[in-house]
Design a protein that fits this description.
homodimer, alpha/beta, six-stranded parallel sheet, 15% strand, DNA-binding
Chain lengths: 346, 346
DNA sequence: GGGAAAAATGTTATCGATAACATCACTTCC
DNA sequence: GGAAGTGATGTTATCGATAACATTTTTCCC
């Protein structure tokens, strides 16, 4: 269809989107004026603004944030968020609350999953920092020395979320997982339980669930009661893992009168096992979880668990990061307590 | 501590990370050589490479991907992924499988949630395209005209996932939700069910669950059986919504002998209601879900549901996108069928 | 050992937006 | 009426990495 002799470039090649310069030319103004219109910055006459916006619309101009971020380092609107995993009701909520808060304020989030592996967090961090983000939100409680160096060198605001770090690199917002486990131990003791077991999946000391388990068993020991047994599966912390873990533990250790599960999913699985085998809860055995998983609402008995203000942590963390970016004062350490909910299963 | 007369810049100011040029100077080579070493591209002498890497390490140089992406548009390693929501077991799995596949190949993902609102998808897309991504993965079945224009103008590979689009903008990989619903209808009919109801939450015709519901009721009607009633809550599609929806529907419509639930979470909630009220499943009433949610494994009876190859869709979509980026041939339309799993609840 | 090929490295122009500064056209006010 | 101010817009340098091309060094073979 191309006719020889036809000027090849009436309109700029559509292969590549229009640039600021093309909009400027079409509107008969300088690039700076278009830039000012796009950013709603500085003063532009209404008539000029209208003309520019008309050309923006006509040419389908999409601002190039890469060029913008490149030109002015401080203008980055990118925030990195690293959580343990994407397939978790709790972390999904955390992520959602963060994403909503940040996108409302005009930030984009770049998400990573570290799978409880500090090395994976460090690798992700390296990729992230290459994008020169405005800030970072982390859930990893432990960072590799390399990651710590990178974070320090980046000199950007960062929030360590989820597990409270009383000596944060910058800001920490969360709860104390160790204490949360200890609290459940004291609760079980107060209900007269003495032969107590634990069912979980995490083995790595870097996992927060292990901190809860430590707090739990330390508190028991402090009261002169030894943990009778624990079952740590090599699997995701799922319903089925709870079912199977309960089965394994009960077959191995007899006369247990209470089980602390790594999370509510596993607790629900444990309850399903008890129900299938005619083990009465809480009469024969008590079961408690962690997380305040809403699915527990459909159980015949309210699950004994620790409710976690997940969305609150996410929202506060996002807001703290933005406050830091704006140079507003922010408390270094913010405890957002988890609340033990007695329920009816212990 | 600053002593007057001290040369102010022995080392470059640490406020800002080292640049390629500084590394080059320190290693006594040109910027290009450093660039080649960092990208493992072109030929560099081992000795030179060692020297450069030593300086990279010493200076803590982090490559600036913004500058890189800016310099060579095609070098973008950013991929946008938009899913309905972050708090969903199924979409969490989808996201995770995509994220793993892409990060292994050296891409970063920028994630968005559109909450079944095409306008939200369009807004997210505008933000994303400003970052000039290498490609996009979408789950929205319906796009606003503006979004379609933007996508076409961007001329980047994109994959429409989850629900199969037989006339995709570029590539579509997924299953047919309408057919999936119809299949369940035929299954229920084959089991002799005739007074059938539906429990869900979605109302917007843009939601895929509504497509399943349509396929379901159309197939019933095609067999001369009318849907006896449906309950659409204004809530998240959760366990509790299933419990409550079941309660509402059964109180409103009598003599139902089967219920199709929007997803497995709701089906489990429905089963919990039945169990609490002494309604026998499947004798008094049949219950089916959708999704192949693994939590169903702990139920006393295997749930009748449609198993969705979520991770497979995610992996195939990521791979298809990368293949398109590399200019390799890719099938436009790839059906990844969902499989009805009879179970024991219908 | 000389010349061609191959390997290693360097030079220059460039991407698109923005900060900082410069200029111009109007008001306003004494 | 002219100086001072203010609002609107333009000019120039710049960010860091890379493609494309240019140059130098090394290798290898007859």
């Amino acid at each position: 269809m191309s006719v020889p002799g036809t000027p090849p470039d009436h309109e700029p090649d559509t292969k590549k989107g229009a640039s600021l310069a093309e909009v400027a030319k079409a509107a008969g103004v300088s690039r700076m004026t278009v830039s000012r219109v796009m950013r709603n910055e500085g003063r532009v006459a209404d008539e000029t603004r209208r003309r520019v916006l008309a050309e923006v619309e006509r040419l389908g101009y999409v601002p190039n944030r890469i060029a913008a971020a490149f030109s002015a380092d401080r203008a980055s609107t990118l925030v990195g968020v690293c959580i343990p995993r994407l397939t978790s009701a709790l972390f999904g909520e955390l992520l959602e609350s963060i994403d909503r808060a940040l996108s409302r304020l005009g930030f984009q989030t770049m998400i990573g999953a570290h799978e409880d592996d500090p090395a994976a967090e460090a690798a992700w961090l390296r990729e992230l920092l290459a994008w020169r983000p405005a800030g970072v939100l982390l859930t990893g409680r432990v960072h590799t020395p390399g990651a710590t160096d990178m974070l320090r060198a980046a000199t950007i605001p960062m929030v360590e979320m989820w597990d409270l770090n009383t000596t944060p690199l910058d800001v920490s917002i969360g709860l104390n997982h160790y204490d949360s486990g200890a609290e459940m131990a004291r609760f079980m003791l107060s209900r007269g339980r003495r032969r107590i077991g634990y069912v979980g999946t995490a083995r790595s000391p870097q996992t927060l669930a292990v901190k809860r388990a430590s707090g739990f068993s330390d508190a028991l020991r402090g009261a002169g009661v030894a943990l009778q047994g624990s079952e740590c599966l090599n699997d995701g912390a799922s319903f089925y893992a709870g079912y199977y873990g309960m089965e394994t533990l009960l077959n191995r250790v007899t006369n247990l009168d209470a089980i602390y599960c790594q999370n509510d999913e596993m607790a629900i699985g444990s309850l399903a096992y008890c129900s299938a085998r005619g083990v009465r809860v809480p009469d024969d055995i008590g079961v408690a979880g962690w997380g305040g998983y809403q699915a527990a609402a459909i159980l015949p008995r309210l699950l004994t668990t620790t409710a976690v203000p997940t969305r609150r942590i996410g929202k506060l963390s996002a807001e703290a990061l933005v406050a830091r970016l704006r140079g507003e004062p922010v408390a270094d350490v913010q405890l957002v307590p988890a609340v033990l909910r007695p329920g009816a299963t212990v």
